[in-house]
Write a structure and sequence with these properties.
There is one protein chain. By secondary structure, the chain is α/β, with parallel strands linked by helices. It has 21 helices and twelve strands. The protein has a seven-stranded mixed β-sheet with strand order 3-2-1-4-8-6-11, sandwiched between helices. Strands 5-12-7 form a three-stranded mixed β-sheet. The longest helix is centred in the last third of the chain and has 34 residues. The N and C termini lie close together (about 5 Å). The relative contact order is 0.14. The C terminus is likely disordered.
């Protein structure tokens, strides 16, 4: 190993990781505790109403179709409605539970803090912009050094970078951070020449080499940013809960400058907190892990969460891509609690700036989440852990289900007063549809849209009722207008995402890999040729639907969907426009974090600029990888 490189890491303190299997279940050494009546009540409150609402809807539709006999096509429609609507209902019931918790209030945490901990902040990187990543690290280090510290901290930059020039810049940026005078928290750097098992292998490699010296690790992404207070709160939460193996914070989106990025940032700010509160209520000690901005007990992870490989096509070993959900399930299987702290502040991340960048990232997540279906039968997993895996997979399977439902419903059941059939009488599956009045169809659509939008409406209503909070969004008028714009944009982009996710599911099922590339962090404005090539399928489908409605072959209620699909290239092109250049206040989609950015974000921007300037002036010095 190169001596310059070796000087950037502390002495090795190996910690062995215990081999795991999905076919056998190790005997749990710990027990997070039995469910209390309160835990059971929250879970019944979340799942019970969702199942009852879905069941009542399915029964009503079966009775409706049964007026003239129940056909194969009607059964397919009913099945798809049940599969899609149960997830919508779960979101609604979880939000209503969160509102109930807010009304009842939250019990104060009275546990005493434990002994001081040694906590490593891990930042895995892969071909990222070095000045941006190290600028974030520099800002977080300054935040930690200015506040109280009951624990000892150190940053570890774990590089899987394969580009030699980027690797050189990483090493030079690290040298700048390490050379700063007066800094109390060390920054270490390691680069692997071969990135075996990607992020999973990177984290596991750190544990086996250095994990024994550290009580816990806070895993961050390349775009993660946390305040000193947020990091300390995570550390304190782990210290106060000896049963916890992992505690996940709720990252809030920041730094968005484009229309699509601000739309996501606004949605997370206004609606996400309530969904997060509901998730914490029904998950309890069987929470989930999102892969970053979370603290993990190092020895618990080493003893229980080394991921086995799956068997792929041809019997080859296959890496689990969406590793975080599975690692949470394995920690819980070993008896460790996995908790979610939705109210912990100071946890931030960035978001893709355009629709195309979002879809490219989503394709990788889809491939990984569908792998979870193969792990549902793993030995020893808690039922709630299995549900997290199933929910992750269905987040993508719902798109083809919605797509098929739209096709079947629109082609075989137009909203007219007279029965219409698109099959010849000789067809054995020939449907005879019940008569449907126009008002019945309208009310059905209103019901569907109300359920889809209810979580947003409730969350926005709660914020609107608090004058102090609304002021942070620019006042009541701007908040209402911006909320309406966000909902409208979400409705416009939803059909495009449905088609893109359907394609992603098909690619995953056919075994077509998606390249693992760094997320586009900056603002990329794609040219028209790229946009048209990327969205050709949506454009063709949209044009076909418009023609079908003009010819009387499809129901007019599909017009919003058809319009979005036909205009997919325009909407995608507009998604990367900078909101500051649009000239309409509501289209700026302002949030408290865009109107008054956090101190750590301002600090990170300054540190990024400083490091960028320093790297531009300094001669490169090659540092060898392991």
């Amino acid at each position: 190993m190169n001596s310059d490189y070796a000087s950037m890491m502390p002495p090795r303190t190996p910690l062995a990781m215990r081999k795991q299997s999905f076919g056998t279940c190790p005997t749990p050494e710990r027990h997070p505790g039995r469910w209390t009546m309160r835990d059971i009540a929250w879970r019944v409150g979340a799942f019970g109403p969702a199942l009852l609402i879905t069941l009542s809807l399915v029964v009503g539709i079966v009775n409706w179709f049964g007026l003239t006999g129940f056909t194969f096509q009607e059964g397919l429609v009913t099945l798809l409605i049940g599969l899609t609507f149960v997830w919508v209902s779960l979101s609604v019931s979880a939000v209503l539970l969160a509102v109930l918790r807010l009304i009842l209030g939250k019990r104060a945490e009275r546990r005493a803090r434990g002994a001081a901990q040694r906590i490593a902040l891990l930042v895995p990187v892969y071909n990222e912009n070095p000045s941006d990543v190290m600028g974030n690290v520099a800002a977080m280090r300054r935040e930690l050094e200015q506040g109280r510290r009951s624990d000892d901290y150190a940053f570890f930059i774990l590089s899987d970078t394969q580009d030699p020039q980027i690797a050189e810049d990483e090493a030079r940026a690290i040298r700048h951070l390490r050379a700063e005078i007066g800094r109390e928290i060390p920054v270490f750097y390691r680069r692997r020449e071969v990135n075996t098992d990607k992020k999973v292998g990177n984290i596991n490699g750190w544990i086996t080499e250095y994990g024994a010296a550290w009580d816990a690790m806070i895993v961050l992404d390349a775009d993660s940013l946390m305040t000193g207070a947020g990091i300390r709160q995570l550390s304190d939460a782990l210290s106060r809960d000896p049963s916890a193996g992992l505690i996940q914070s709720f990252p809030v989106l920041i730094s968005a400058e484009t229309l699509f990025g601000r739309m996501q940032q606004f949605a997370t700010s206004v609606y996400g907190w309530l969904l997060a509160e509901g998730l914490a209520l029904w998950s309890q000690s069987e929470g989930n892990y999102w892969g970053h901005n979370a603290i993990i007990r190092t020895r618990a992870f080493a003893d229980s969460a080394q991921l086995p490989h799956l068997k792929g096509r041809g019997g080859q070993d296959q890496l689990i891509l969406s590793h975080d959900f599975v690692e949470a399930g394995m920690l819980r299987r070993a008896g460790w609690a996995v908790r979610f702290l939705p109210r912990l502040g100071g946890s931030f991340e960035e978001t893709p700036s355009s629709l195309i960048d979002y879809v490219i990232r989503d394709r990788r997540w889809c491939q990984g989440n569908l792998q979870h279906l193969r792990i549902l039968g793993a030995r020893g997993f808690h039922p709630i852990s299995r549900f997290h895996l199933l929910q992750g997979a269905f987040a993508y399977l719902l798109s083809p289900a919605w797509f098929v439902l739209l096709v079947v419903w629109s082609a075989f059941l137009p909203l007219t007063k007279d029965p219409v059939s698109y099959f010849s009488p000789s067809n054995p599956f020939h449907p005879v549809w019940p008569q449907v009045s126009q008002i019945d169809g309208v009310w059905f659509l209103v019901f569907i849209y109300t359920m889809l939008l209810l979580p947003k409406i409730v969350a926005a209503g709660l914020l609107a009722a608090s004058r102090g909070v609304v002021k942070l969004y620019g006042g009541t008028g701007r908040f209402v207008a911006t909320t309406a714009v966000e909902i409208g944009l979400a409705i416009l982009y939803a059909p495009i995402l449905m088609v893109q996710q359907t394609q992603a599911v098909m690619r995953a099922l056919l075994g077509k890999p998606n390249a693992w590339t760094p997320q586009s962090r900056g603002t990329t404005h794609y040219d028209w040729s790229t946009v048209l090539r990327f969205h050709w399928l949506e454009t063709v489908l949209g044009a076909g639907m418009v023609y079908g409605m003009a010819a009387g072959l499809l129901s007019l209620w599909l017009l919003p969907v058809a319009t979005s699909l036909a205009l997919a290239p325009v909407l995608s092109w507009a998604s990367s426009l900078k909101v500051d250049e649009l000239g309409v206040a509501a289209l700026r989609l302002e949030t408290p974090l865009s109107l008054r950015e956090p101190r750590v974000q301002t600090r990170a921007r300054a540190e990024r600029a400083r490091l960028k300037s320093a790297l531009a002036e300094e001669e490169p010095v090659l540092i060898a990888a392991e």
